[in-house]
Specification:
This protein is an alpha+beta fold. It contains 5 helices and 12 strands. The strands form 2 sheets. Strands 1, 2, 3, 4, 5, 6, 7, 8, 9 and 10 form a 10-stranded mixed beta sheet that branches. It has a two-stranded antiparallel ribbon with strand order 11-12.
Protein backbone atom coordinates (compact mmCIF):
# COMPACT_ATOMS: atom_id res chain seq x y z
CA UNK A 1 0.00 0.00 0.00
CA UNK A 2 1.33 3.39 -0.98
CA UNK A 3 2.20 5.74 1.85
CA UNK A 4 0.06 8.82 2.18
CA UNK A 5 1.70 11.98 0.89
CA UNK A 6 1.71 14.58 3.67
CA UNK A 7 2.13 18.30 3.06
CA UNK A 8 4.03 18.86 6.32
CA UNK A 9 5.48 17.11 9.32
CA UNK A 10 2.73 18.61 11.50
CA UNK A 11 0.08 17.00 9.28
CA UNK A 12 1.95 13.66 9.43
CA UNK A 13 2.19 13.72 13.24
CA UNK A 14 -1.49 14.62 13.60
CA UNK A 15 -2.42 11.54 11.59
CA UNK A 16 0.22 9.23 13.13
CA UNK A 17 -1.09 6.10 14.90
CA UNK A 18 1.35 4.93 17.59
CA UNK A 19 -0.93 2.06 18.69
CA UNK A 20 0.53 -0.11 15.91
CA UNK A 21 3.63 -0.62 18.08
CA UNK A 22 3.92 -2.72 21.23
CA UNK A 23 4.81 -0.74 24.34
CA UNK A 24 7.84 -1.11 26.55
CA UNK A 25 8.87 0.69 29.74
CA UNK A 26 12.17 2.32 30.67
CA UNK A 27 13.90 2.35 34.04
CA UNK A 28 17.08 3.91 35.41
CA UNK A 29 19.29 1.96 37.83
CA UNK A 30 22.35 3.18 39.74
CA UNK A 31 25.42 1.16 40.72
CA UNK A 32 26.79 3.41 43.48
CA UNK A 33 30.37 2.47 44.36
CA UNK A 34 32.64 3.55 47.19
CA UNK A 35 36.08 2.65 48.47
CA UNK A 36 36.37 3.47 52.14
CA UNK A 37 38.30 2.58 55.27
CA UNK A 38 37.45 -0.14 57.73
CA UNK A 39 38.84 0.03 61.26
CA UNK A 40 41.94 -2.19 61.58
CA UNK A 41 42.37 -4.63 64.45
CA UNK A 42 45.89 -3.33 64.99
CA UNK A 43 45.99 0.43 65.41
CA UNK A 44 49.52 0.52 63.99
CA UNK A 45 48.34 -0.82 60.64
CA UNK A 46 46.89 1.34 57.90
CA UNK A 47 43.10 1.09 57.76
CA UNK A 48 42.13 -1.51 55.17
CA UNK A 49 40.17 -0.21 52.20
CA UNK A 50 37.02 -2.00 51.09
CA UNK A 51 35.24 -1.77 47.74
CA UNK A 52 31.52 -1.25 48.40
CA UNK A 53 28.23 -1.00 46.51
CA UNK A 54 24.96 0.46 47.76
CA UNK A 55 21.99 -1.93 47.63
CA UNK A 56 18.32 -1.47 48.50
CA UNK A 57 16.09 -4.25 49.86
CA UNK A 58 12.88 -4.59 47.86
CA UNK A 59 9.66 -4.39 49.87
CA UNK A 60 7.26 -5.42 47.07
CA UNK A 61 6.98 -8.10 44.40
CA UNK A 62 8.61 -9.08 42.12
CA UNK A 63 11.75 -10.17 44.01
CA UNK A 64 10.33 -9.10 47.37
CA UNK A 65 12.99 -9.11 50.14
CA UNK A 66 15.83 -9.40 47.64
CA UNK A 67 18.53 -6.77 47.22
CA UNK A 68 18.72 -4.56 44.16
CA UNK A 69 20.37 -1.41 42.90
CA UNK A 70 18.51 1.86 43.51
CA UNK A 71 16.23 2.28 40.50
CA UNK A 72 12.81 3.10 39.16
CA UNK A 73 10.71 3.99 36.14
CA UNK A 74 11.45 6.98 33.93
CA UNK A 75 8.52 9.39 33.76
CA UNK A 76 6.98 10.19 30.38
CA UNK A 77 7.93 13.85 30.73
CA UNK A 78 11.47 13.56 32.13
CA UNK A 79 14.88 12.76 30.69
CA UNK A 80 16.71 9.60 31.74
CA UNK A 81 19.37 11.67 33.53
CA UNK A 82 16.70 13.59 35.45
CA UNK A 83 15.02 10.33 36.38
CA UNK A 84 18.32 8.94 37.65
CA UNK A 85 18.82 11.98 39.89
CA UNK A 86 15.25 11.77 41.19
CA UNK A 87 15.46 8.05 41.89
CA UNK A 88 18.83 8.45 43.58
CA UNK A 89 17.42 11.05 45.98
CA UNK A 90 14.20 9.12 46.60
CA UNK A 91 15.70 5.72 47.32
CA UNK A 92 18.98 6.62 49.05
CA UNK A 93 18.65 10.24 50.20
CA UNK A 94 21.94 10.94 48.38
CA UNK A 95 22.53 13.88 46.06
CA UNK A 96 25.28 15.86 44.32
CA UNK A 97 27.55 12.90 43.63
CA UNK A 98 29.38 11.88 40.45
CA UNK A 99 27.30 9.78 38.04
CA UNK A 100 27.63 8.66 34.43
CA UNK A 101 25.71 6.36 32.11
CA UNK A 102 27.06 2.82 32.02
CA UNK A 103 25.05 0.70 29.57
CA UNK A 104 21.51 -0.13 28.47
CA UNK A 105 20.32 -3.57 29.56
CA UNK A 106 17.53 -4.93 27.40
CA UNK A 107 17.26 -8.71 27.74
CA UNK A 108 13.71 -9.64 26.82
CA UNK A 109 12.96 -11.51 30.07
CA UNK A 110 14.99 -9.40 32.50
CA UNK A 111 11.81 -8.33 34.32
CA UNK A 112 8.90 -10.78 34.90
CA UNK A 113 6.26 -8.01 34.87
CA UNK A 114 6.57 -6.77 31.31
CA UNK A 115 9.09 -5.69 28.68
CA UNK A 116 11.38 -3.30 30.55
CA UNK A 117 14.65 -1.80 29.35
CA UNK A 118 17.03 -0.28 31.90
CA UNK A 119 19.63 2.44 31.42
CA UNK A 120 22.19 1.84 34.13
CA UNK A 121 24.50 4.40 35.70
CA UNK A 122 27.60 4.20 37.84
CA UNK A 123 27.97 6.69 40.68
CA UNK A 124 31.07 7.21 42.82
CA UNK A 125 31.24 8.55 46.35
CA UNK A 126 33.44 8.60 49.45
CA UNK A 127 30.92 7.06 51.82
CA UNK A 128 33.00 7.93 54.90
CA UNK A 129 32.42 11.60 54.15
CA UNK A 130 28.70 11.47 53.46
CA UNK A 131 26.62 14.05 55.27
CA UNK A 132 23.39 12.42 54.10
CA UNK A 133 21.60 9.61 55.92
CA UNK A 134 20.58 6.52 53.99
CA UNK A 135 17.00 5.34 54.13
CA UNK A 136 16.41 2.27 56.36
CA UNK A 137 16.15 -0.24 53.51
CA UNK A 138 19.44 0.90 51.89
CA UNK A 139 22.75 -0.65 52.95
CA UNK A 140 26.41 -0.60 51.92
CA UNK A 141 27.82 -4.03 51.03
CA UNK A 142 31.56 -4.58 50.85
CA UNK A 143 32.63 -6.67 47.87
CA UNK A 144 35.39 -9.24 47.44
CA UNK A 145 35.99 -9.98 43.77
CA UNK A 146 37.66 -13.08 42.30
CA UNK A 147 38.08 -13.12 38.52
CA UNK A 148 39.67 -15.44 36.00
CA UNK A 149 39.34 -15.93 32.26
CA UNK A 150 35.97 -17.68 32.50
CA UNK A 151 34.03 -16.17 35.39
CA UNK A 152 33.73 -13.54 38.10
CA UNK A 153 32.69 -14.28 41.67
CA UNK A 154 31.57 -11.38 43.83
CA UNK A 155 31.00 -11.88 47.57
CA UNK A 156 28.81 -9.31 49.34
CA UNK A 157 28.83 -8.50 53.07
CA UNK A 158 27.05 -5.71 54.96
CA UNK A 159 27.89 -7.01 58.43
CA UNK A 160 24.54 -8.76 58.82
CA UNK A 161 24.04 -10.57 55.51
CA UNK A 162 26.56 -12.34 53.31
CA UNK A 163 26.03 -13.87 49.87
CA UNK A 164 27.83 -14.34 46.57
CA UNK A 165 27.07 -14.33 42.86
CA UNK A 166 28.94 -15.97 40.00
CA UNK A 167 28.98 -14.47 36.50
CA UNK A 168 30.26 -16.30 33.43
CA UNK A 169 32.34 -14.33 30.90
CA UNK A 170 31.91 -14.95 27.17
CA UNK A 171 33.78 -12.96 24.52
CA UNK A 172 31.33 -11.13 22.28
CA UNK A 173 33.39 -12.13 19.24
CA UNK A 174 36.74 -13.83 18.54
CA UNK A 175 38.26 -10.46 17.63
CA UNK A 176 36.83 -8.54 20.60
CA UNK A 177 38.17 -7.93 24.11
CA UNK A 178 34.65 -7.17 25.40
CA UNK A 179 32.70 -9.74 27.36
CA UNK A 180 29.07 -10.74 27.53
CA UNK A 181 28.10 -11.53 31.12
CA UNK A 182 25.79 -14.44 31.95
CA UNK A 183 24.45 -15.00 35.47
CA UNK A 184 25.54 -18.46 36.63
CA UNK A 185 24.60 -18.25 40.33
CA UNK A 186 22.50 -15.59 42.04
CA UNK A 187 19.88 -16.19 44.72
CA UNK A 188 19.92 -12.81 46.43
CA UNK A 189 19.94 -9.98 43.85
CA UNK A 190 16.85 -8.90 41.92
CA UNK A 191 16.48 -8.66 38.13
CA UNK A 192 19.83 -8.75 36.27
CA UNK A 193 21.53 -6.41 38.72
CA UNK A 194 24.42 -8.83 39.23
CA UNK A 195 25.37 -8.16 35.60
CA UNK A 196 24.97 -4.41 36.10
CA UNK A 197 27.32 -4.46 39.10
CA UNK A 198 29.95 -6.53 37.30
CA UNK A 199 29.70 -4.28 34.23
CA UNK A 200 30.16 -1.23 36.45
CA UNK A 201 33.23 -2.72 38.11
CA UNK A 202 34.71 -3.47 34.68
CA UNK A 203 34.05 0.11 33.51
CA UNK A 204 35.66 1.54 36.63
CA UNK A 205 38.74 -0.69 36.24
CA UNK A 206 39.18 0.50 32.67
CA UNK A 207 38.62 4.20 33.34
CA UNK A 208 40.84 4.42 36.41
CA UNK A 209 43.93 3.99 34.21
CA UNK A 210 43.26 6.91 31.84
CA UNK A 211 40.94 9.31 33.71
CA UNK A 212 40.78 10.99 37.12
CA UNK A 213 37.49 9.27 38.00
CA UNK A 214 38.93 7.71 41.17
CA UNK A 215 39.11 11.07 42.95
CA UNK A 216 35.32 11.11 43.23
CA UNK A 217 35.85 8.42 45.88
CA UNK A 218 38.43 10.39 47.84
CA UNK A 219 38.11 13.03 50.50
CA UNK A 220 39.59 16.46 49.83
CA UNK A 221 42.84 15.51 51.58
CA UNK A 222 44.54 12.11 51.60
CA UNK A 223 47.92 10.43 51.90
CA UNK A 224 49.54 8.72 48.95
CA UNK A 225 49.26 5.44 50.83
CA UNK A 226 45.49 5.86 51.11
CA UNK A 227 45.20 6.74 47.42
CA UNK A 228 47.33 3.76 46.42
CA UNK A 229 45.07 1.43 48.41
CA UNK A 230 42.04 2.72 46.53
CA UNK A 231 43.72 2.05 43.17
CA UNK A 232 44.71 -1.44 44.34
CA UNK A 233 41.24 -2.32 45.65
CA UNK A 234 39.60 -1.31 42.36
CA UNK A 235 42.20 -2.97 40.14
CA UNK A 236 42.32 -6.07 42.33
CA UNK A 237 46.13 -6.17 42.48
CA UNK A 238 49.05 -4.61 44.28
CA UNK A 239 50.97 -1.81 42.59
CA UNK A 240 54.69 -1.25 42.96
CA UNK A 241 55.37 2.16 44.48
CA UNK A 242 57.36 3.53 41.48
CA UNK A 243 54.61 2.51 39.03
CA UNK A 244 51.91 4.04 41.22
CA UNK A 245 53.85 7.31 41.61
CA UNK A 246 54.10 7.59 37.82
CA UNK A 247 50.34 7.09 37.46
CA UNK A 248 49.43 9.90 39.86
CA UNK A 249 52.41 12.24 39.35
CA UNK A 250 50.41 14.91 37.50
CA UNK A 251 47.11 14.28 39.28
CA UNK A 252 47.89 15.34 42.86
CA UNK A 253 49.66 18.15 44.68
CA UNK A 254 51.35 18.18 48.05
CA UNK A 255 49.88 20.30 50.85
CA UNK A 256 51.36 21.65 54.08
CA UNK A 257 49.13 19.31 56.08
CA UNK A 258 50.45 16.21 57.83
CA UNK A 259 48.43 13.23 59.04
CA UNK A 260 49.45 12.03 62.49
CA UNK A 261 48.14 9.71 65.20
CA UNK A 262 47.00 6.10 65.34
CA UNK A 263 50.54 4.81 65.91
CA UNK A 264 51.63 5.72 62.36
CA UNK A 265 54.53 7.85 61.25
CA UNK A 266 53.41 11.34 60.16
CA UNK A 267 52.37 11.33 56.48
CA UNK A 268 52.17 14.27 54.11
CA UNK A 269 48.64 15.00 52.89
CA UNK A 270 47.87 15.53 49.21
CA UNK A 271 44.84 16.75 47.29
CA UNK A 272 43.52 16.32 43.76
CA UNK A 273 45.07 18.90 41.46
CA UNK A 274 41.88 19.18 39.38
CA UNK A 275 40.00 20.86 42.25
CA UNK A 276 42.16 23.92 41.83
CA UNK A 277 42.65 24.29 38.07
Amino acid sequence: MDEKDYASEEEFLKDYDSSQFEKLSLTADMAIFSVSSENPNNYRKLSKKKFSVLLVKRTTYPFKNKWCLPGGFVGIDESIDDAAERILNRETNLHNIYMEQLYTFGDVKRDPRMRIVSTAYIALVDKNKLEDCLFPNASWFSMDILEDEKEIQVSFDNGNEQFSVIISKVLKSPTSDRYQYIIKKDNHLAFDHAKVIVSGISRLKNKISYTDIVFNMMGEYFTLGELQQVYEVILGKELLDPAFRRIIANKVEKTDMVKTGGGHRPSVMYRYRGHHE
